[in-house]
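Comment thread on ticket #2218

A.B. wrote:
> Attaching the input chain for the structure job we discussed in standup.
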Amino acid sequence: MGQEAPRKAPEEGKLDLHPLINRWALWFFKNDCSLAWQNNLHRVTKFNTVEDFWVIHNNNQLASKLSSGCDYALFKDGIKPMWEDSRNKQVGRWLVSLTKQQHHIELVHLWLETLLCIIRESFGEPSQEVCGAVINIRAKGDKIAVWTWEAENQEGVLHIGCVYKECLGLSTKTIIG
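C.D. wrote:
> Ran it. Output below, let me know if you need it in another format.
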């Protein structure tokens, strides 16, 4: 294992920030039938440090408090959380479906673990294959998904799925789609 690079002491009054490998964008979708789908999607903010992630996470409404038809998405900067984005043409996804009974118990925990898994680049080299993650709040049941670039890269996609299940603390018998 290599040693961590020595850090300079922060100047007085300045924080020593922890950069992420990628810059991320947080998106919010609220379904308004009077608008075109794309006009319901709004980028909330961008960030590229651990500290900024926590500020954003702690100051946004919990996913469990969103109304039905709303989504949060966290994607690498420059990629829109939509199938129509040119960088998502070959995209695949790992999907965790939750019943309404699981909504309040597990939803917040699973979403946070999903976010941490992707911003920490927990998948090793296949982390470069991850576009982002989406949580869909729906009346019949909620969904959390990790989107991957190359659905055809079976080895990388399977590795991401296995690590994702571990990050969420799901048993090996739990099936994700």
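A.B. wrote:
> Thanks. Noting for the ticket: The longest strand covers residues 19-30.
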